[in-house]
Amino acid sequence: MSAPTSSIAPIGTTYTSLLKVYSSPSKTGALKHKLGQAGTGYLRALDSYPVLTKAYTSAVLNAISEITASYLAGRKDKSATSAAAKQNGLPPYLTARVPKMAAFGFFVSAPLSHYLVSWLQKGFKGKVGPFWKLLQILTSLVTVTPIMSTVLLASMSVVAGARSFKQVLASIKLGFFPVVKSNWLISPIAMFIAQNYLPPQLWTIFFSILAFFVSTYNNYIVKSRAIDGRNKAAKKSDSQVTLKKEETEESNKNE
Protein backbone atom coordinates (compact mmCIF):
# COMPACT_ATOMS: atom_id res chain seq x y z
CA MET A 1 0.00 0.00 0.00
CA SER A 2 1.42 3.30 -0.94
CA ALA A 3 0.96 6.88 -0.07
CA PRO A 4 -0.22 8.95 -3.01
CA THR A 5 2.76 9.96 -5.11
CA SER A 6 3.18 12.09 -8.20
CA SER A 7 -0.47 11.78 -9.18
CA ILE A 8 -1.39 14.10 -6.31
CA ALA A 9 -0.55 17.78 -6.45
CA PRO A 10 1.79 19.24 -3.84
CA ILE A 11 0.11 21.02 -0.99
CA GLY A 12 1.29 24.38 -2.32
CA THR A 13 -0.55 23.73 -5.58
CA THR A 14 -3.56 22.58 -3.56
CA TYR A 15 -4.01 25.82 -1.64
CA THR A 16 -3.24 27.91 -4.75
CA SER A 17 -6.05 26.14 -6.59
CA LEU A 18 -8.41 26.66 -3.66
CA LEU A 19 -7.53 30.34 -3.57
CA LYS A 20 -8.60 30.70 -7.20
CA VAL A 21 -11.88 28.91 -6.53
CA TYR A 22 -12.79 31.11 -3.58
CA SER A 23 -11.30 34.39 -4.76
CA SER A 24 -14.52 35.90 -6.14
CA PRO A 25 -17.10 36.66 -3.44
CA SER A 26 -19.51 37.97 -6.09
CA LYS A 27 -19.74 34.50 -7.57
CA THR A 28 -19.50 32.24 -4.57
CA GLY A 29 -20.89 34.40 -1.79
CA ALA A 30 -19.18 36.21 1.07
CA LEU A 31 -19.30 33.24 3.44
CA LYS A 32 -17.76 30.86 0.93
CA HIS A 33 -15.09 33.45 0.17
CA LYS A 34 -14.16 33.77 3.86
CA LEU A 35 -14.11 30.01 4.32
CA GLY A 36 -11.90 29.71 1.28
CA GLN A 37 -9.46 32.29 2.63
CA ALA A 38 -9.34 30.53 5.99
CA GLY A 39 -8.82 27.17 4.31
CA THR A 40 -6.03 28.36 2.05
CA GLY A 41 -4.37 30.18 4.95
CA TYR A 42 -4.43 26.99 6.99
CA LEU A 43 -2.99 24.94 4.13
CA ARG A 44 -0.28 27.56 3.63
CA ALA A 45 0.66 27.31 7.31
CA LEU A 46 0.58 23.53 7.07
CA ASP A 47 2.96 23.70 4.13
CA SER A 48 5.37 26.11 5.85
CA TYR A 49 5.19 24.83 9.44
CA PRO A 50 3.76 21.29 9.30
CA VAL A 51 4.57 20.08 12.82
CA LEU A 52 3.65 23.36 14.55
CA THR A 53 0.38 23.69 12.63
CA LYS A 54 -0.59 20.12 13.43
CA ALA A 55 0.35 20.69 17.08
CA TYR A 56 -1.94 23.72 17.37
CA THR A 57 -4.71 21.82 15.58
CA SER A 58 -4.41 18.83 17.89
CA ALA A 59 -4.33 21.06 20.99
CA VAL A 60 -7.53 22.86 19.98
CA LEU A 61 -9.33 19.64 19.03
CA ASN A 62 -8.31 17.92 22.28
CA ALA A 63 -9.50 20.86 24.37
CA ILE A 64 -12.84 21.01 22.53
CA SER A 65 -13.22 17.24 22.86
CA GLU A 66 -12.72 17.39 26.63
CA ILE A 67 -15.12 20.33 27.01
CA THR A 68 -17.77 18.66 24.83
CA ALA A 69 -17.57 15.32 26.63
CA SER A 70 -17.67 17.01 30.04
CA TYR A 71 -20.65 19.15 29.03
CA LEU A 72 -22.65 16.22 27.63
CA ALA A 73 -21.87 13.98 30.59
CA GLY A 74 -22.48 16.82 33.07
CA ARG A 75 -26.05 17.21 31.87
CA LYS A 76 -26.75 13.84 33.51
CA ASP A 77 -25.44 15.05 36.87
CA LYS A 78 -26.93 18.51 37.34
CA SER A 79 -26.44 18.61 41.10
CA ALA A 80 -22.71 18.00 40.82
CA THR A 81 -22.27 20.44 37.96
CA SER A 82 -24.15 23.22 39.75
CA ALA A 83 -22.06 22.65 42.89
CA ALA A 84 -18.87 22.83 40.85
CA ALA A 85 -20.03 26.03 39.19
CA LYS A 86 -20.72 27.66 42.56
CA GLN A 87 -17.34 26.56 43.90
CA ASN A 88 -15.05 28.11 41.28
CA GLY A 89 -17.36 30.42 39.36
CA LEU A 90 -16.57 28.72 36.05
CA PRO A 91 -18.78 26.52 33.89
CA PRO A 92 -18.50 22.96 35.25
CA TYR A 93 -17.18 21.61 31.96
CA LEU A 94 -14.12 23.92 32.11
CA THR A 95 -12.08 21.61 34.31
CA ALA A 96 -8.34 21.35 34.89
CA ARG A 97 -8.26 18.53 32.36
CA VAL A 98 -8.91 20.94 29.47
CA PRO A 99 -5.46 22.62 29.41
CA LYS A 100 -3.82 19.29 30.18
CA MET A 101 -5.50 17.66 27.19
CA ALA A 102 -4.51 20.63 25.02
CA ALA A 103 -0.90 20.28 26.17
CA PHE A 104 -0.99 16.56 25.40
CA GLY A 105 -2.19 17.28 21.87
CA PHE A 106 0.40 20.01 21.30
CA PHE A 107 3.51 18.42 22.78
CA VAL A 108 2.88 14.69 22.40
CA SER A 109 0.07 13.52 20.16
CA ALA A 110 0.56 15.76 17.11
CA PRO A 111 4.38 15.53 16.80
CA LEU A 112 4.39 11.79 17.39
CA SER A 113 1.58 11.20 14.89
CA HIS A 114 3.31 13.44 12.34
CA TYR A 115 6.58 11.53 12.43
CA LEU A 116 4.97 8.09 12.57
CA VAL A 117 2.77 8.84 9.55
CA SER A 118 5.76 10.37 7.71
CA TRP A 119 7.76 7.22 8.40
CA LEU A 120 4.89 5.08 7.12
CA GLN A 121 4.58 7.15 3.94
CA LYS A 122 8.32 7.07 3.25
CA GLY A 123 8.44 3.33 3.78
CA PHE A 124 5.89 2.75 1.03
CA LYS A 125 6.79 5.62 -1.28
CA GLY A 126 6.68 4.59 -4.94
CA LYS A 127 4.98 1.27 -4.19
CA VAL A 128 1.64 1.07 -5.98
CA GLY A 129 -1.13 -1.48 -6.32
CA PRO A 130 -3.67 -3.17 -4.03
CA PHE A 131 -1.06 -5.41 -2.40
CA TRP A 132 1.08 -2.50 -1.21
CA LYS A 133 -1.96 -0.55 -0.03
CA LEU A 134 -3.11 -3.52 2.03
CA LEU A 135 0.40 -4.01 3.40
CA GLN A 136 0.58 -0.35 4.41
CA ILE A 137 -2.71 -0.68 6.30
CA LEU A 138 -1.48 -3.82 8.09
CA THR A 139 1.85 -2.16 8.92
CA SER A 140 0.00 0.81 10.39
CA LEU A 141 -2.19 -1.48 12.50
CA VAL A 142 0.76 -3.33 14.07
CA THR A 143 3.09 -0.33 14.52
CA VAL A 144 1.44 3.09 14.56
CA THR A 145 -1.74 1.99 16.34
CA PRO A 146 -0.06 0.22 19.32
CA ILE A 147 2.46 3.04 19.77
CA MET A 148 -0.16 5.80 19.71
CA SER A 149 -2.48 3.79 21.98
CA THR A 150 0.26 3.21 24.55
CA VAL A 151 1.29 6.87 24.59
CA LEU A 152 -2.36 7.95 24.84
CA LEU A 153 -3.11 5.67 27.79
CA ALA A 154 0.08 6.65 29.61
CA SER A 155 -0.62 10.34 29.13
CA MET A 156 -4.26 10.00 30.18
CA SER A 157 -3.27 8.19 33.35
CA VAL A 158 -0.92 11.05 34.26
CA VAL A 159 -3.66 13.60 33.51
CA ALA A 160 -6.01 11.58 35.73
CA GLY A 161 -3.54 11.72 38.62
CA ALA A 162 -1.17 8.76 38.25
CA ARG A 163 2.23 9.62 39.70
CA SER A 164 4.15 6.35 39.78
CA PHE A 165 5.36 4.07 37.01
CA LYS A 166 3.28 1.22 38.44
CA GLN A 167 0.10 3.30 38.23
CA VAL A 168 0.82 4.29 34.64
CA LEU A 169 1.65 0.70 33.70
CA ALA A 170 -1.56 -0.54 35.31
CA SER A 171 -3.58 1.96 33.27
CA ILE A 172 -1.87 0.82 30.07
CA LYS A 173 -2.52 -2.85 30.83
CA LEU A 174 -6.15 -2.17 31.64
CA GLY A 175 -6.96 -0.14 28.53
CA PHE A 176 -4.49 -1.30 25.89
CA PHE A 177 -6.43 -4.06 24.17
CA PRO A 178 -9.84 -2.32 24.21
CA VAL A 179 -8.29 0.83 22.72
CA VAL A 180 -6.27 -1.08 20.13
CA LYS A 181 -9.27 -3.19 19.13
CA SER A 182 -11.45 -0.13 18.59
CA ASN A 183 -8.70 1.50 16.54
CA TRP A 184 -8.28 -1.66 14.48
CA LEU A 185 -11.94 -1.37 13.50
CA ILE A 186 -11.69 2.29 12.51
CA SER A 187 -8.12 2.64 11.20
CA PRO A 188 -8.46 0.50 8.04
CA ILE A 189 -11.40 2.60 6.84
CA ALA A 190 -9.59 5.84 7.66
CA MET A 191 -6.42 4.64 5.95
CA PHE A 192 -8.36 3.60 2.84
CA ILE A 193 -9.90 7.07 2.61
CA ALA A 194 -6.52 8.74 3.12
CA GLN A 195 -4.82 6.55 0.52
CA ASN A 196 -7.36 7.20 -2.18
CA TYR A 197 -8.68 10.70 -1.58
CA LEU A 198 -6.17 12.82 0.38
CA PRO A 199 -2.69 14.22 -0.32
CA PRO A 200 -0.05 12.91 2.11
CA GLN A 201 0.30 16.31 3.80
CA LEU A 202 -3.29 16.16 5.02
CA TRP A 203 -3.19 12.65 6.47
CA THR A 204 -2.29 13.69 10.02
CA ILE A 205 -4.98 16.39 10.06
CA PHE A 206 -7.57 13.92 8.77
CA PHE A 207 -6.62 11.39 11.44
CA SER A 208 -6.71 14.13 14.11
CA ILE A 209 -10.24 15.16 13.14
CA LEU A 210 -11.37 11.53 13.11
CA ALA A 211 -9.72 10.98 16.49
CA PHE A 212 -11.56 14.04 17.80
CA PHE A 213 -14.97 12.47 17.20
CA VAL A 214 -13.89 9.03 18.45
CA SER A 215 -12.20 10.37 21.59
CA THR A 216 -15.13 12.70 22.35
CA TYR A 217 -17.53 9.76 22.21
CA ASN A 218 -15.26 7.49 24.27
CA ASN A 219 -14.61 10.27 26.79
CA TYR A 220 -18.35 10.90 27.11
CA ILE A 221 -19.03 7.19 27.69
CA VAL A 222 -16.34 6.99 30.38
CA LYS A 223 -17.60 10.11 32.15
CA SER A 224 -21.23 8.96 31.91
CA ARG A 225 -20.38 5.59 33.42
CA ALA A 226 -18.50 7.30 36.24
CA ILE A 227 -21.51 9.54 36.93
CA ASP A 228 -23.88 6.55 36.84
CA GLY A 229 -21.60 4.73 39.26
CA ARG A 230 -21.55 7.68 41.66
CA ASN A 231 -25.33 8.05 41.44
CA LYS A 232 -25.86 4.35 42.19
CA ALA A 233 -23.46 4.54 45.13
CA ALA A 234 -25.22 7.65 46.44
CA LYS A 235 -28.65 6.00 46.14
CA LYS A 236 -27.38 2.90 47.92
CA SER A 237 -25.92 5.02 50.69
CA ASP A 238 -29.15 7.02 51.02
CA SER A 239 -31.22 3.85 51.17
CA GLN A 240 -28.97 2.43 53.88
CA VAL A 241 -29.27 5.63 55.90
CA THR A 242 -33.05 5.61 55.48
CA LEU A 243 -33.26 1.95 56.49
CA LYS A 244 -31.12 2.53 59.56
CA LYS A 245 -33.27 5.52 60.51
CA GLU A 246 -36.44 3.46 60.17
CA GLU A 247 -34.95 0.68 62.27
CA THR A 248 -33.99 3.19 64.96
CA GLU A 249 -37.48 4.70 65.00
CA GLU A 250 -39.06 1.25 65.18
CA SER A 251 -36.77 0.32 68.04
CA ASN A 252 -37.70 3.48 69.94
CA LYS A 253 -41.40 2.74 69.51
CA ASN A 254 -41.02 -0.78 70.87
CA GLU A 255 -39.25 0.56 73.93
UniProtKB/TrEMBL annotation:
UniProtKB keywords: Membrane, Transmembrane, Transmembrane helix
Membrane topology category: Multi-pass membrane protein
Any single Gene Ontology cellular-component annotation: peroxisomal membrane
Localization in the cell: Membrane
Transmembrane region(s): 101-117, 137-162, 174-194, 200-222
Main location: membrane
Superkingdom of origin organism: Eukaryota
Residues covered by region (Disordered): 231-255
InterPro entries in UniProt: Mpv17_PMP22
Family: Belongs to the peroxisomal membrane protein PXMP2/4 family.
Name of this chain's protein: Integral membrane protein
Species the sequence originates in: Nadsonia fulvescens var. elongata DSM 6958
Lineage: Eukaryota, Fungi, Dikarya, Ascomycota, Saccharomycotina
